[in-house]
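Lab notebook, design round three. We kept the backbone fixed and only want residue identities now. Task for the bench partner: fill in a sequence for the structure below.
Input structure tokens:
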């Protein structure tokens, strides 16, 4: 277990480093100037130079890159004497840190990763992500829960009713779901259930998880705003889970040990629940984990169309405003989620199937 976790953490560090490096250099290759996005196109050169100095954009690209990695790293090196140094130990930025050791003007510290401040709002990126992460998480979790429960249930029904009308109807629904892009589904579902049938459904095209009470009683939980975006996100994974569950269950039901269990006189219900479904869920769990991570990363269009203030909504605004720290912060958060989910799924495998060991993963 320990060796497995160490290896996975090592892979995670490499993945995060690769993602950060790719985005950092892409933002410095594509045309655009964040200082002009902040000040406007008709500002003077003195103001531009002042903002560039404040953001550290007047330094060579390699130095900007090294300093950004230094900020992201939990163990970082700083100059504790020269306030004008690009690597100065600024206590207003690194709120919580512990000094490991000092050698002259150089200090090595242990700290939380510093994601810097948004170019546009001047708020710390960590604070912005904290404010919006739960909205995206609850949206993705609701969507994957709906897709997993309905997908496994319909997949089991489809497998047990193989080649019958029920099976064909379920497979038709599944095929339609896989062929429907999320952005088109969001527009279509929003138009039908919020615009055309809004007076009957009571659903809005835009809304947040928490809304302000017009009577002045503070905020209240508006779960009805979650319905349309969650259903939209659930369509494609639902179709995939139906197909995977059906195919995996049909394969398991054809195995020798299933025939042996039936020959021993076990009821069909016990054969199905104790042996068949449990062993058929491995590929489905892999898909659920992958899709959950994908939903966390791919809610951009759905959140933007439904006005859901989550990570995807923030990411679109950050890209439009050339807000590099916020873009890297959001993508970094999503990358870490991918890694954590991957580790949890490998552990779940050992629970569902004792034949699988972590050291062999």
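Proposed sequence:
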């Amino acid at each position: 277990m320990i060796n497995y976790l160490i290896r996975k953490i090592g892979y995670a560090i490499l993945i995060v480093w690769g993602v950060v490096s790719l985005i950092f250099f892409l933002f410095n290759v594509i045309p655009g100037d964040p200082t002009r996005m902040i000040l406007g196109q008709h500002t003077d050169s003195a103001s531009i130079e002042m903002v560039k100095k404040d953001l550290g954009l007047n330094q060579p690209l390699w130095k900007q890159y090294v300093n950004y990695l230094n900020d992201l790293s939990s163990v970082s090196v700083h100059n504790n004497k020269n306030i004008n140094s690009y690597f100065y130990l600024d206590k207003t930025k690194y709120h919580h840190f512990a000094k490991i050791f000092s050698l002259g003007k150089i200090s090595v510290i242990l700290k939380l990763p510093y994601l810097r401040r948004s170019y546009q709002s001047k708020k710390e990126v960590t604070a912005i992500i904290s404010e919006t992460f739960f909205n995206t998480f609850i949206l993705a979790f609701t969507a994957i829960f709906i897709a997993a429960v309905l997908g496994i249930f319909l997949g089991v029904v489809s497998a047990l009713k193989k080649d019958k009308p029920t099976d064909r109807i379920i497979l038709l629904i599944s095929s339609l779901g896989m062929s429907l892009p999320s952005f088109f589904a969001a527009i279509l579902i929003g138009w039908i259930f919020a615009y055309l049938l809004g007076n009957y459904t009571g659903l809005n095209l835009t809304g947040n998880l928490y809304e302000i009470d017009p009577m002045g009683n503070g905020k209240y939980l508006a779960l009805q705003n979650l319905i349309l975006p969650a259903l939209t996100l659930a369509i494609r994974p639902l179709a995939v889970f139906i197909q995977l569950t059906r195919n995996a269950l049909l394969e398991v039901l054809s195995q020798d040990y299933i025939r042996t269990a039936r020959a021993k006189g076990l009821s069909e219900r016990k054969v199905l629940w104790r042996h068949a479904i449990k062993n058929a869920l491995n590929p489905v769990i892999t898909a659920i984990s992958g899709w959950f991570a994908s939903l966390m990363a791919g809610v951009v269009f759905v959140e933007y169309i439904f006005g859901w203030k989550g990570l995807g909504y923030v990411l679109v605004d950050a890209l439009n405003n050339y807000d590099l720290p916020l873009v890297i912060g959001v993508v970094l958060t999503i990358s870490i989620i991918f890694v954590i989910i991957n580790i949890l799924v490998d552990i779940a495998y050992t629970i569902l199937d004792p034949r699988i060991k972590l050291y062999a993963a």
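Keep this in mind before ordering anything: The mean pLDDT is 81.
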